[in-house]
Amino acid sequence: MSIIVRKLYIRMLSANNRQSILLPALLLFLPGLHAEEATLSLDTTRVCNYTLAYEDKGSGGDQDLSIYTPEAPTGYYLIGGYAQGDYGKPSGCVLAVKPSAASTEKANELLMSPAKWQLVWTDKGSGAVMDGSLWHPVPPNNNYVCIGSVGKAGYTSPSIPNYRCLHKCLVENVNVANYLWSDKGTGAKNKVGIYKLSNSGLFYAKPDRKKPLTLVDLKVKPACYGDMDTMTVAPAESTTVKPVESAPAPKKNEWVNPDLQ
């Protein structure tokens, strides 16, 4: 909490005189006081409309899987995709974000485009009707983290111009309780596990079937306090801060943002 400078009046009583003395004081952590306001924050909106990106029909997997790309409203940015363990109509919503109009212009630095896309999994060998792949974005530098994975038809790198990575002051570690799907039974050459992020509703794809202890998700109240230069400390190490790599992605499948070259 930031330091609050206030004037504290202390009345000193004596037998013959009553007087007030004005003393300056520095008060820290006073109960019930909202001593600081968010200088940088995001606005969020629920997105419940999607475009189908991939489904594993015909794969023979132990579970069903559908992957969707959210349709963010104008002015909002995607921070991941939506996954569901069946082929029915999407039943959940995810969050999209934008810099808050109430914040300073510096809030635009809370969101950055990914530097490139890392291949997590393909369904090659599965026999699914659709060809499909799962990808996770790589942040532009160590001050940012990309929390949500995406899926797509085919095996080429995604093109999602409105995807954004988040400054680390906006995220927190969350326990992993929401397992959604794995490639078990599909016959695919590579392994993958998919987990739902509890705060944002997005999914994270991990290139093996071992459950992670924690993942990184958007804070329930995505706001940052203080100077931007001091808000560069990453959360405790987790699989989304440093994505697990079972094997390097082929270079031909990596998309590099030309704006960062």
List the helices and strands and how they pair.
Elements: E1 4-13, E2 18-27, E3 40-47, E4 50-55, E5 66-70, E6 82-84, E7 94-99, E8 111-112, E9 116-122, E10 132-138, E11 144-145, E12 150-153, E13 165-167, E14 171-175, E15 179-182, E16 193-196, E17 203-206, E18 214-218, E19 223-224
Antiparallel strand pairs: 1-2, 3-7, 3-19, 4-5, 5-6, 8-13, 9-10, 10-12, 11-13, 14-18, 15-16, 16-17
Would you write up a description of this structure?
With 261 residues, the chain is mainly β. It has one domain. It is 0% helix and 37% strand. The chain contains no helices and 19 strands. The strands form seven sheets. The chain has a three-stranded antiparallel sheet, with no helix packed on it. Strand 16 and strand 17 form a beta hairpin. The chain is elongated. The N terminus and C terminus are likely disordered.
Descriptors:
261 residues; mainly beta; three-stranded antiparallel sheet; 19 strands; disordered N terminus
Summarize it.
This protein is mainly beta and 261 residues long. It has strands at 4-13, 18-27, 40-47, 50-55, 66-70, 82-84, 94-99, 111-112, 116-122, 132-138, 144-145, 150-153, 165-167, 171-175, 179-182, 193-196, 203-206, 214-218, 223-224.
Which structural class is indicated by helix and strand composition? mainly beta
- The total of beta strands comes to 19
How does the overall form come out from the CA principal axes? elongated
Helical proportion?
under 10%
Order of secondary-structure elements: EEEEEEEEEEEEEEEEEEE
| Separation, N- and C-terminal Cα atoms | 39 Å
**Uncertain ranges:** 1-36, 232-261
- Rg over CA atoms, rounded to whole Å, is 24 Å
Largest sheet: 3 strands, antiparallel
Mean pLDDT: 79
Q: What is the spatial order of strands in the main beta sheet?
A: 7-3-19
Q: Strand content of the residues, in percent?
A: 35-45%
Q: Count helical runs.
A: 0
Domains, number: 1
